């Protein structure tokens, strides 16, 4: 029953928020285009449920082709645009993922989807994370909401992510798998909203 109710909640809530915020998203799209060269959206391949790749949507917050110089964002990354800094701070860049939720690629709450480069490093137990739909937010998103700052202070950001942050995130993903319920999902949603706007 839980998976069915969760899917209904995902579709209804994502559609409602998408319609509600549509005017704001149109304004954001215009500002992004005026701020720097490039498209409005950024699409990146992530690994979803059952290890199936999908295209994750975001509002573009970096200069065009910025991902060619690295897949993680660190500190005051020079690749981030002026508007990008603002929409990243308030997680506005993640709003297009509501489309991913409606399509069925993602859920509102679930382990954040990772790029293939890092998924290839998962051990057998960690791959269990991919047994559920990835989410817009989760326990790891709450714990590492300042991940960009942490990596900005690291001597080797990629090594720090692989050896410290990624295992910690996967442990929190395991916690979610063990505790998942509608109650847990609502708790994570409210905590996420609070953390973003506090």
From TrEMBL:
Q: Which residues form the Bacterial sugar transferase domain?
A: 6-198
Has the keyword Membrane been applied to this entry? yes
UniProt KW Cell inner membrane keyword: no
Record keywords: Membrane, Transferase, Transmembrane, Transmembrane helix
GO MF terms held by the record: phosphotransferase activity, for other substituted phosphate groups
Q: Where are the transmembrane segments?
A: 12-34
Q: Which InterPro entries does this entry report, sorted A to Z?
A: Bact_transf (IPR003362)
Fetch the Pfam families from UniProt.
Bac_transf
Indicate the family of this protein: Belongs to the bacterial sugar transferase family.
Query: What name does UniProt use for this protein?
Result: Sugar transferase
